[in-house]
Every structure is written in structure tokens, then in C-alpha cells.
Write a sequence for this structure.
């Protein structure tokens, strides 16, 4: 039953292909490693993957993708969910959380960050979110140069890499606290990605059909599909994503984990969540509060019709610490996103 | 009184039981891998632990963070232990604290790329003898805030020193139960700023060479509103004459060079026993918020502001104000020390010299201004000090 789900999910969402074919090697995930109040030194202790190199996921992992992913210097991301035997995911409130799935104790969310194509693909880090009895714990694991194992990097690290755009950068693996900086609402660690509105309905339907998800969630308004790899944000007629939707989805996924009530940047008063409908709250003609030099001498977050006068564009278009937004998780500029923001603001009613 | 040995024993046991049993000390030294070693200690600390930063220069490339309650981070003095962020590559601040009951003491941060130390939602925090310095002096490229507690209940800043912040040296925002004392704020845009906060005591500080010395602000559109119940007393506010170097767009970019103590909006503020010297625009300025806003919760006026007895020296003699020349001439060479916009409500002890713009309405600029000498009622009754300042428990931590 579970195997079929995994295979279906993997093929349905075309996740890199290479591992889907290998998911036959049975190896059980260590439920103990997930729920124990400890920080395993090595990723392999979880048993999420059947090989030392972490290329072959356990048959118990459910691969997934996001409509609009968080951008991390162009890293490829390999995402998996793990729900323990008999565990059922509850659906989250569509209005307040965007339908963030509520995972049972013993669940895990696993994300590997990789750069490079095919045989040259290098794993940099794998981040895990572990659902323990007292809430979520976030841990970062760094892959060794030989690509044979990943070790706990509590304090984070800097790794020289070449981005898909050819930039040589000092890539930042976040430390454990920085994981929480983003994954935190009202001081509790929470997942960001797996919200119903940002997941493929087919995956949700499968999970529900298999009884892994309590019910098919009400999606409301789904996030559009962003595809960085294709050269620009996909703007196809089929998903009817207009610039507004793309921009708002990007801000929701990349910024709103801090910029919302209860988030790390709540004191800014800026609320970039998808469901926020008040233009002032998401930055239109909103003066900065604590931006300091980050404001770049500009007066408001968004000046309709004038991207160059908008702090939001200025900060997304910088790599300088103290100016760059998001503060964590990128060392380069997401030029495609900046272009969409510019279009969005330029098209706004003045 | 003679205490029996049993009483003493009982007292000792009581003390022992309230102290953490397995509190540990983690000692960090400067040198290779300091970033990782220090950050790992901050992550692995258990409540009750102390992290000791030995004397020396720590070269750091990324922001540090602490998320464990009841931890002390102790250096070897604000000139002995220096966390140097000159080559910082990431993060919005040098040190971020997000846990409660933390004590930071006896160390310095230099040249953080963003803010110095930010503590957010970190209740009952103590900053003791902390120094944050941008070593190149006033520069719009410097970070915004040196010491930056926000959205917190229980904040004590004592013996701190902040220089060069492009916004506020010591900034307390959206917080409650606050004391800032015995600290030096020099060459920042705002020396000390209390914003959208309640029950703040600002006393025995030195604010000098800032654009504005001590600012008590309340702004619209923020999650926490309704600033007030603030006492500014016994401060030395001298020669705040640095040209405003804040990046435009920030609220403090509008502060006039030469402002001593400034109240904008807020309810119930007492200003007394301060020494104000050489603040050429206004030793004391009490005004409404001047910009447009759309926030039903917000009152833009400065209400119930009490000007007690202060020591006024030279000041108001070179105001950075519209029509300065005419005003100065009209008042005989220098503006009187207390400037009010005539909106809201203000009382002043007898003998207070001041002037008012006599504005008819808030948010209309100088339209309708009719400057003249200040006439304000004398304060009625004592200022209610109840509940103002940091909880006593925070004092006890640095005794």
C-alpha cells in the first residue's frame, strides 16, 4: 500500500527520476531516532535513505514538490515526507495557516539541497524537521566531500559552490537556530512548505485515499507554479498565473514565514502572506519601521508604478548583509523573482 | 536578631533549591573556528548555563543566535572581549536572542553589518556593560540599531555604550517594563529611542554627539501600539549636534540636528532633572506625529507630558527649523528650551521657559502656526510612577 503511494507520487510529480526507480530496496526508517530527544550526529542514523550517499530514499518516504518553492541560490531540492506507520496527517486551517498539514508525532520532513546536473550533482546539505512529542525540531546535516555521509552541522557552515547561473558563492548552511528563525510562529517551530495550497492536489488526493491524510483539504486559492529551471517563472495559460499571483506567491513562500503576525519580523508590521488582502499590510505605500540602511533611502516598501522606489525590490536585489532580504537562505540575487516583482509593482494601479 | 542555625539552614536550602542543579559553564576562546564553537555553545547551552567569552578578538562571518532560556553570556569586559563582524557575510544582526531570562554582559560587538544585538520576544533580558561600536563613526552605511530589544516584557539596559548607529544606538521597541540607565549613546542618529513602548524608565544616561539625544516615539501601523508611561530623568543630554545621517525613509531621518529630548505622540511622559546643554535646535521638543496614517488605534498627539525641573544650559541657538532666523531673532538670540507644537496636552513646572507653535491641527505641517511663548499649566499632583521600569528581578541579576 505504502509502496504504491510512493511510486505513484514519485512518478506523478517527476522528481528527478533517478531515485524513484530504486525505491525497491526496503529499509525501515528509525522511528526512535525521530522521536527521541537527541540530535543524531549522522543523517544515516534516521534510515531515511537506503544507501550511504542518500540517493535512494526508503520506500517509506513520500516524495513531494511545491507549486511555489522557496528559492535558495538556485539549489535543487529533493523533498520527502515521512509519516510513521498508522499515523494520520490532519488538515490544517485553510484561512489562518494556508492549510498547513498537521503531522502526527513521529513524522519527518526531509529536504536535500543539491547543485549540479546528473553525475556532477553534489549534495550540499540535508535539512530535517522532526515531529517530536514536544513539537518540531529542525536539524541541518552537511554532506562530506566524498558524498558518502552527512553530519550534523549544528553551528552551520559555509561551503564554496557554483550556482546554476555560474556564480561562485559562499553558500550558507544555516545553524540550528537559523532553521528556527524561519520555521517559527509564536516561538514554536513549524514546517513552511507543506501547505495544502502549495501542494499538488493529486498528491493530497492520494494521501487522502490511502488514509494517510484525514480528509481532502479545502485548498481555496492554490499557489501558482513557479519554475526557475525553465528560464522564467512559468506564465502559461494553463495555470493562468498572472503577475500578481506569481509575485504574491513568491512573497508568501520566501518572505511570509517571518513577515506575518507571530513571525520573526512581526515587529515590522509587514504581512506578506498570500491571504493578506490589505495592500498597506503587504507593503503598498507602507513606510519602513526598523529597516535602517536596508531601506536604501527609499520611503515605502512598495510604491505602485515605481519599482525603483520600492524598498521590497531594493532589498531583494541586494546581497549585502543588513540590506538583503530574505536575511537568511541566499547569497545571490534571484533575478527572475526580482523581474516578476518589478513587473508586478510597475503594473499596480497608482 | 539572633537566627537559629535551623533558620540559616532552611534559608540556605531554599536558595539551593531555586538554583539550577546542573548549571554548567562553557568557556570559548578566540581563534580558529570561533564562529562554529561559539554558535555551538549557544545552541547546546541548557537553561542555567553560562557561556564565558574569554578576552580577545573574535572574527565572525555570520550572525550568532541564542534561543535557550535562562542563559548568561559573559565576556571579559566591553574592551576585553570583542566580537568583530567587520567581515560578516550573512544575517541581519550580530547576535539574535529569542529566548527569555537571558543576561548578556561584559562584551562588545564591532561593525555588525545590520543591527548589533537584537532580542525579539525575549522577556526579562538584561544587557549589562555591552558595547556596540561602528568604528568608522557616523555613516549611513552603518547598521540601524546597536542594542535592539523588541516585543519583549522586562528589559534592562545598564552600563551600555553604543556609537555610530545609523538609526538608534539603544532602541527599545514595542515592549513593556523597561529600564535604560547608566549608558552612553554617542554619535548615533538617535542616542536612545523608546518606541511604541510602555512603562519605560530612562535615567542616568549620557547622550551626546547624536543627532537627537533621547527620543520617545509612538508610531502608527505597528503590531504594538499605545506608547506611554515613560520617565526620562537625570540624564546628561549634551551637544547632540551631529548632522542627521540616517538613510531617508526611516522615521529618525526626520529628527532635526540638535534635538535633546524629543517626545512624539505618547501618553504620560515625565521629563525632569536632566541636564541639557548645547542642543542647538531644541533641548526639549514635544510634538505630534506629523505624517498621514490610517490606523484607528492611533492617537498622534503627545498627551499628558510633564516637564519637571531640568537644568537648561545653552541651547536652541541654532535651530534646524523652518524660519529659524526669524524665530531666533524674535526670541532674542536663542529659542527657549522647551518647544511644543501646541497640540495634545503639556504641563510644566513654574519658571519653565518655552515656546509653542500653537498649531491648530495635527498632520497639516506648519499651516496655521502662530509661534509664541509657552504658557502651560503647572503639573497637578505627583506623576504616577507605579509600574514603570524593569522588574526588580532583573536588577538582582547584576548585583
Amino acid at each position: 500500500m505504502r509502496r504504491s503511494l510512493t511510486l505513484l507520487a514519485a512518478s506523478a510529480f517527476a522528481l528527478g527520476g533517478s531515485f524513484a526507480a530504486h525505491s525497491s530496496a526496503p529499509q525501515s526508517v528509525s522511528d526512535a531516532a525521530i522521536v527521541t530527544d537527541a540530535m543524531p550526529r549522522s543523517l544515516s542514523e534516521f534510515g531515511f535513505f537506503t544507501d550511504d550517499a542518500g540517493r535512494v530514499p526508503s520506500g517509506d518516504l513520500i516524495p513531494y514538490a511545491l507549486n511555489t518553492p522557496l528559492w535558495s541560490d538556485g539549489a535543487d531540492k529533493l523533498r520527502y515526507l515521512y509519516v510513521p506507520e498508522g499515523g494520520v496527517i490532519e488538515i490544517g486551517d485553510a484561512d489562518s495557516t494556508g492549510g498547513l498539514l498537521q503531522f502526527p508525532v513521529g513524522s519527518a520532513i526531509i529536504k536535500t539541497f543539491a547543485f549540479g546536473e546528473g553525475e556532477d550533482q553534489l549534495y550540499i546539505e540535508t535539512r530535517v524537521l522532526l515531529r517530536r512529542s514536544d513539537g518540531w525540531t529542525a536539524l541541518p546535516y552537511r554532506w562530506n566531500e566524498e558524498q558518502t555521509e552527512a553530519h550534523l552541522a549544528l553551528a552551520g557552515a559555509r561551503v564554496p559552490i557554483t550556482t546554476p547561473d555560474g556564480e561562485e558563492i559562499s553558500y550558507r548552511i544555516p545553524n540550528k537556530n537559523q532553521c528556527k528563525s524561519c520555521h517559527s510562529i509564536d516561538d514554536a517551530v513549524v514546517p513552511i512548505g507543506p501547505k495544502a495550497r502549495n501542494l499538488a492536489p493529486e498528491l493530497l488526493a492520494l494521501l487522502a485515499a490511502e488514509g494517510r491524510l484525514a480528509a481532502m483539504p479545502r485548498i481555496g486559492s492554490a499557489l501558482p507554479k513557479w519554475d526557475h529551471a525553465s528560464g522564467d517563472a512559468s506564465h502559461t495559460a494553463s495555470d493562468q498565473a498572472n503577475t500578481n499571483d506569481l509575485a504574491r506567491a513568491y512573497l508568501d513562500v520566501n518572505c511570509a514565514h517571518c513577515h506575518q503576525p507571530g513571525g520573526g519580523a512581526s515587529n515590522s508590521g509587514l504581512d506578506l502572506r498570500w491571504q493578506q488582502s490589505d495592500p498597506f499590510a503587504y507593503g503598498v505605500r507602507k513606510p519602513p519601521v526598523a529597516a535602517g540602511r536596508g531601506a536604501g533611502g527609499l520611503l515605502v516598501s512598495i510604491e505602485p508604478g515605481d519599482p525603483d522606489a520600492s524598498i521590497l525590490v531594493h532589498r531583494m536585489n541586494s546581497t549585502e548583509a543588513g540590506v538583503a532580504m530574505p536575511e537568511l537562505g541566499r547569497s545571490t540575487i534571484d533575478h527572475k523573482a526580482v523581474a516578476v516583482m518589478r513587473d508586478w509593482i510597475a503594473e499596480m494601479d497608482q | 536578631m539572633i537566627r537559629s542555625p535551623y533558620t540559616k539552614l532552611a534559608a540556605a536550602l531554599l536558595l539551593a533549591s531555586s538554583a539550577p542543579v546542573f548549571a554548567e559553564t562553557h568557556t570559548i576562546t578566540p581563534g580558529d573556528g570561533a564562529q562554529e564553537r561559539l554558535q555551538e555553545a549557544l545552541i547546546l547551552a541548557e537553561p542555567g548555563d553560562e557561556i564565558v567569552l574569554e578576552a580577545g578578538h573574535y572574527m565572525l562571518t555570520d550572525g550568532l543566535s541564542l534561543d535557550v532560556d535562562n542563559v548568561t553570556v559573559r565576556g571579559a569586559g566591553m574592551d576585553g572581549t570583542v566580537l568583530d563582524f567587520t567581515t560578516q557575510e550573512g544575517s541581519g544582526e550580530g547576535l539574535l536572542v529569542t529566548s527569555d531570562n537571558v543576561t548578556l554582559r561584559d562584551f562588545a560587538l564591532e561593525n555588525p553589518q545590520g543591527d548589533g544585538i537584537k532580542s525579539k520576544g525575549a522577556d526579562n533580558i538584561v544587557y549589562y556593560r555591552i558595547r556596540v561600536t561602528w568604528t568608522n563613526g557616523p555613516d549611513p552605511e552603518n547598521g540601524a540599531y546597536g542594542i535592539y530589544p523588541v516585543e519583549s516584557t522586562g528589559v534592562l539596559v545598564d552600563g551600555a555604550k553604543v556609537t555610530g548607529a545609523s538609526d538608534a544606538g539603544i532602541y527599545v521597541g514595542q515592549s513593556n517594563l523597561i529600564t535604560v540607565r547608566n549608558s552612553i549613546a554617542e554619535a548615533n542618529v538617535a542616542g536612545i529611542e523608546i518606541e511604541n513602548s510602555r512603562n519605560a524608565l530612562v535615567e542616568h544616561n549620557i547622550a551626546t554627539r547624536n543627532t537627537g539625544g533621547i527620543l520617545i516615539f509612538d508610531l502608527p501601523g505597528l503590531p504594538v501600539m499605545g506608547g506611554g508611561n515613560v520617565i526620562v530623568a537625570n540624564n546628561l543630554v549634551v551637544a547632540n549636534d551631529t548632522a542627521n545621517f540616517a538613510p531617508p525613509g526611516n522615521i529618525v531621518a526626520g529628527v532635526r540636528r540638535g534635538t535633546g529630548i524629543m517626545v512624539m505622540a505618547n501618553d504620560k511622559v515625565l521629563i525632569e532633572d536632566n541636564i541639557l546643554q548645547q542642543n542647538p535646535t531644541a533641548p526639549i521638543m514635544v510634538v505630534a506625529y506629523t505624517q498621514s496614517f490610517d490606523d484607528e488605534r492611533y492617537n498622534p498627539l503627545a498627551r499628558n507630558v510633564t516637564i519637571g525641573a531640568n537644568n537648561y544650559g545653552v541651547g536652541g541657538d541654532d535651530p534646524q527649523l523652518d524660519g529659524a532666523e526669524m524665530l531666533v531673532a524674535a526670541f532674542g538670540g536663542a529659542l527657549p528650551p522647551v518647544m511644543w507644537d501646541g497640540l495634545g496636552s503639556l504641563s510644566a513646572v513654574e519658571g519653565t521657559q518655552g515656546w509653542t507653535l500653537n498649531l491648530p491641527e495635527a498632520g497639516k505641517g506648519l499651516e496655521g502656526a502662530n509661534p509664541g511663548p509657552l504658557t502651560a499649566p503647572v503639573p497637578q499632583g505627583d506623576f504616577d510612577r507605579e509600574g514603570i521600569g524593569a522588574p526588580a528581578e532583573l536588577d538582582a541579576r547584576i548585583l
Summary: The helical segments of chain A are 2-12, 31-35, 94-97, 176-182, 201-209, 243-254, 311-316, 335-347. The two ends of chain A are 55 Å apart (CA to CA). The longest strand of chain A covers residues 122-132. The longest helix of chain A spans residues 335-347.
